[in-house]
Structure formats: structure tokens, C-alpha cells
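Hi there,

I know you've been waiting on this one. I reran it after we fixed the sequence typo, so this is the corrected version. Both the input and the resulting structure follow.
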Amino acid sequence: MDVNKINEAWTDVYYYLHYKHVDVLTHQNIRFMQAIYKNKNITISSLSKIMNLSHNTASEHVQRLQKKQYVERRKNPNDERQTYVTLTNLGKQILKRNTELDEEKIRQVLGKLELEEQMLIYEALQLLRETVINEFS
């Protein structure tokens, strides 16, 4: 299978179906927010490892996101020395609009396909998702 063809198809789907971006965020901001969202109860130390950055640099990124009210810090109730970083409701909304596909556009496209075709797409994406999670989590 030609990996370039898969990449081209994937990026075309995203290009045409993504939400219109209204917030000015860097790619790094989005990656941080994704890491926070996908890793519940994440600490700055864990974030720095995931993002392959120093603890201080990761902390600075979190501070910037906190100023925009996209993330918040909260103490671990079982260990006051640990501080978790979580997305706020606003942060979740911003992340959705910057990483997911526009649901209305998806409905519009799916409406053009037969039910069997819709199921094929869903099953292929689920298989890809499961394989990716098993390989990289």
C-alpha cells in the first residue's frame, strides 16, 4: 500500500471537512491540549515527557493556555504535592473546533453515500483507530 496515497486522502478529508478556525492557536498549543485531553490526570512532568520538552518549557506552555482559560491546574486530592492539568469547558470546545471534523459537513457527505458505504468507512476507521491505539499507547 502506498503510504503517500493514504496521507493524501487523509489530509484531503481533513482539509475539506474541518471546522473553520476562528481562534489563533499554534500547532504546539493544540498538541498540548490534545495530550491533556487524552491523558486524564496528567501532570506537568508527564506532559514534558510526552511533548519531549523540558519541565520548565512545558510549564510555560501550560501557563499560556491557563491565561487563555483553556486549562486549569488542580491539586491531587490524595497527594497535595501533585498538580494535575485539565482542560476547561472552553478548552474542550476550542480543542474540538481545532481537531475534529465539522459534524454538519460529515452528515452532508454521508447523506450522499449508501448505508453499506457508510458502514465500510466507519468499520475501516474503527480498525485503523484500534490498531493505532494498540501500537502507540
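Quick highlight: The beta strands are 42-43, 71-76, 79-87.

Best,
R. S.
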